Amino acid sequence: MKITPLDVRKQEFKITFKGFDKNEVNVFLEMIAKEMEDLIKENNIYMEQLRDLDSKIEDYRRMEKTLQNTLTSAQKTTDELRRNAEKESELILRNARIQADHILEEARSQVNSIRSQITSLKTLRDTFVAQFRALVEAQLQVLNKNWEELDIEEITVEKKKRNISETEGKEIKHDVREPLKGLGDLFR
Q1: For the chain, which residues make up each domain, given as ranges?
Q2: CA distance 61 to 165
Q3: Can you give the C-alpha Rg of the chain in angstroms?
Q4: Cβ atoms of 174 and 147 closer than 8 Å
């Protein structure tokens, strides 16, 4: 049975012959009741503090759980971001390599095309030079033939000139071949 301070105050004892002094007992009971009241008040204060602390502990536990969940979520997000960044960097590297290979292949193709064009141009140049040389040589042959004919005509003209100069007293000298002499050496 639970005893309260009020129970202590209202407690009555039987009076017997040679019993305790009633005033002393009442003072003692009052003192015990007062002490009990103080202890109960103190206990209530402690209980209230305990409930507050329990509530705070529960709040802290919830906060800890929330922080743990947040930390776990942040770790998962970080891991996922890292994986995605690695995948993206691999993709960028792969694309860069493909593009570099494509550029190199295109450059090689252009180099081969330019080499082919150079070879074609050299062949064309050689053909042109050969044809031009043949044309010049043919023209020189024609010129030489014409010169031979001109030489014959020149001799005839010279004879006529002499005849004229003898008749007029003047001598005319004129060599038509002189300006064209070095022309044949230009194309050899």
Answers
A1: 5-187
A2: 141
A3: 67
A4: no
